[in-house]
């Protein structure tokens, strides 16, 4: 099964972004939010506006299921760019996909949903690309 998430709607007051990860990091994200251990580098993309990119970048060990964490980040009127102050200005990949690096931790309160993807389905999507 190939995942298609056409429901992405960039609402007026929030931006929805996705982060693909592996099972061992899910509890930490639930507890602490999404933290960039590399130092909040502007070029280290960690979230995207499209589910496919996040799913592609998720990682599985030992045929485990993978996870995509969905965040809903508030957008304020005084934002310098979409996602500020949590995200650096995005790298627009195409009309459906923008990748962002973190400026600061995305708080656990912004976790909207955690998608668990079976290994076989993830592998099919990985082979299909994003």
Summarize the structure.
This protein has 130 residues and is an alpha+beta fold. The protein has helices at residues 23-32, 51-57, 119-128, and strands at residues 14-21, 45-48, 66-74, 91-94, 97-101, 111-117.
Structure class: alpha+beta
**Major beta sheet, strand line-up:** 1-3-6
The topology string of helices and strands comes to EHEHEEEEH
The name of the CATH architecture is Alpha-Beta Barrel
Rg of Cα set? 14 Å
Distance between the termini: 14 Å
Can you tell me the residue ranges where pLDDT is under 50 for at least 5 consecutive residues? 1-11
Helix segment tally: 3
Please tally the β strands and state the result: 6
Q: DSSP strand (E) fraction?
A: 25-35%
Work out the count of structural domains. 1
Specify the overall morphology.
globular
Largest sheet: 3 strands, antiparallel
Q: Please give the share of residues in helix.
A: 10-25%
Task: State mean pLDDT (0 to 100 scale).
Answer: 87
Q: In CATH, what is the class? A: Alpha Beta
- As for the CATH topology, it is ADP-ribosylation fold
Descriptive notes:
Helix content is 21%, strand content 28%. A hairpin with a 2-residue loop joins strand 4 and strand 5 (97-101). It is globular. The two termini are 14 Å apart. It contains 3 helices and 6 strands; from the N terminus they run E-H-E-H-E-E-E-E-H. By secondary structure, it is an alpha+beta fold.
Question: Could you outline the blueprint of secondary structure elements for this entry?
Answer:
Elements: E1 14-21, H1 23-32, E2 45-48, H2 51-57, E3 66-74, E4 91-94, E5 97-101, E6 111-117, H3 119-128
Antiparallel strand pairs: 1-3, 2-5, 3-6, 4-5
């Amino acid at each position: 099964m190939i995942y298609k998430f056409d429901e992405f709607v960039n609402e007026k007051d929030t931006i929805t972004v996705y982060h693909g990860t592996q099972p061992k990091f899910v509890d930490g994200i639930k507890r602490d939010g999404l933290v960039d251990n590399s130092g909040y580098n502007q070029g280290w993309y960690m979230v995207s506006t499209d589910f496919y990119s996040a799913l592609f970048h998720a990682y599985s060990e030992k045929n485990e299921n993978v996870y995509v964490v969905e965040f809903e980040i508030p957008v304020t009127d005084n934002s310098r760019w979409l996602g500020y102050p949590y995200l650096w200005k995005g790298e627009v990949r195409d009309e459906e996909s923008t990748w962002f690096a973190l400026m600061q931790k995305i708080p656990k309160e912004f976790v909207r949903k955690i998608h668990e993807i079976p290994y076989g389905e993830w592998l099919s999507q990985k082979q299909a690309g994003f």
